[in-house]
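Long-time lurker. I teach an intro course on protein structure, and each term I like to show students one example going from raw sequence to a predicted 3D structure in token notation. This year I'd like something fresh instead of my usual example. Would anyone be willing to generate the tokens for the chain below so I can use it in lecture? Attribution to the forum is fine with me.
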Amino acid sequence: MFSDCIIMAGGSGTRLWPASNAAKPKQFLTYRSKDSENTPSGCAFDQTFFASAIERGLAVLATDGRLIIIAAESYTPLVLAECERFGEEARRRMVLIPEPEAKNTAAAIACGVKYAAMDGDRAILVLTSDHIIAPLEVFKVNAAAAYKTALNQDALVVFGIPPSRPETAYGYIEVAERLGGAFKVASFREKPDKLTAERFLEAGCFYWNSGMFAFTSSFMLGEFARLAPDVFMSFDRLSPLSASAYTTKSGLQILGAWAGLADAYHESKRVSFDYAIAERCVRTFMVAADFAWRDIGSWDEYAPLAGSSEVEVYEAGAESCFVDADIPVALCGVKDLIVVARSGKDGGAPSVLVARKGETQRIREIVEQIRDAGRTELL
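-- Reply from a regular --
Happy to contribute to a lecture. Here you go:
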């Protein structure tokens, strides 16, 4: 299987504000699983999105494979806390590369590919850290198909999710003919309007873009050089590593002293991997996902799955309300509300969200207002 797995864990996750914020973004929130993924007992349990991604990565690595975690430098304590949940043997296979600044997914993947390629040509899987995917065994089968396609076709492989509704919040992948265990990609489409999404659903040849990728390092180095030199050249100049570049905390290797990394990030263009590479790559294939996939993009979706919170709720005549808070909350004579309150003790700013169920997609408007007001500390 894969020799390296890159897990991107640098996003801010503002769609689940204020629980997801700069101090503790979405990937480190817990969700309630009924265990199609990991436990044979079938009992429900809480785990973070990030921990679930680690389990997926470890499951598809070769016996000598390596898990490369790319996360914001400020998230290092959160990453360490999650990695400590795994055994010593698993932690020995992990390395954390703290990002000195956020430059979107193209820079994160370029950094991970450059690091992996220092050990020769590698088979790489790139995973997101904020989605729900189950069951694990089915994911492993689809990942194996992506691995074979990436090597046999010398190509970029993406994972497409069969659409269940005319969704306007996701990008789409249009496929052409099937070749072995994958489809040739005809095009990538941006997030559509409702009528276009309905047309995509009826056509039967469009899939949601999951944001996960497979490729060999030699192929991707060539694609970065050809398609996105303004992203990659700064990383390509990075020097080879010595043992002194690493520190070890709680059994996890941290690459904290890679000479030139801060300059590489600073010089790299801020752009997504999809826009810089995937949408312009001429050799792209898609594996259709057989696993269940959920991108939790709003409180309406997250509320039924939210993990345990320090919630103390008092109600008088309240109906059908959801509360996620670390301070006491009282509800009187209201219904169909989602209330999220953070006191600031997690390091973020104190903030409260009150929304009617069915309206939480409008948080993006709130986030824009906060940014326009110059109050980014709230995010």
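Some talking points for your students: The chain has a mean pLDDT of 93. The longest helix spans residues 136-153.
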